[in-house]
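My current task is to audit a protein record that another person submitted. Please read both lines and tell me whether the tokens look consistent with the sequence. Do not assume that whoever made the record got everything right. I have pasted the whole thing underneath without changing anything:

===
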Amino acid sequence: MATTPRTAPRQAREPLRPIRLFGTYFRISALNELQYRANFAVQIFQSVIALITGLAVLALVFGQTTNLGGWSQAELLAVMGVHILMGGVIGSAIQPNMERLMGDVRQGTLDFILTKPEDSQVLISVREFRVWRLVDVGVGGVVLGVAIVQLEGSLGLASALGFAFALLIGATMIYCFWLILTTAAFWIVRMDEIHELWHGIYDTGRWPVTIYPGWLRISLTYLVPIAFAVTVPAEVLTGRLTLETLAIATAFALALVLFSRWWWRFGLKRYSGASA
């Protein structure tokens, strides 16, 4: 018996309800993870090692040249900061929920979500949070602060708002990308290795996509939106971003939101559940 998505008229009356649900699940996840505080030390160690490795590679590159594809060392440091920060957002809020969804589809336990009087997409997107991965968000923020100082420019209100908007657009695209891939689990049950593949692809975002060959640049922009998630926010800080690029990013994000929503609802029609 196929399971169809429930409607949630209450959400239409309460547009802020998804935010409240996120807050509730965030508190639950935080309480669960705070029971294992040794994980905090492990996460700090991993983040510091990753940061040292990235800085070492950056130093090696600029030991041989004064710029890379027109990007200075300080500008690439900004790219690194955005990459680390966005990685923290993905690792704390997006990837855990998508991995849990894959497990629910495989085990037939998605029924527990579909029977609740809430929008199913909202619930599968907010119920898991790895609070310790917020360490990467903090580390990325520190790296960005250092980069801004080295760029010898002050971050004005317009730049700060543009940067925040670009980050939001980028995170939205990455969420939609993950949801589109994960929804394929309704047809392809074994999707466990996606996270390993993702990490390999995401590492390309350590460098601006403009330094890559044309075919790879297009792939990292429109197939896997790494450029919009990392390079575009960094371009705001370095004064490289044009209004045209920002408009394209906004339009593409909207298209992804609409398509991922349709794709999710279409995929649910193929879900039979544990009671089938």
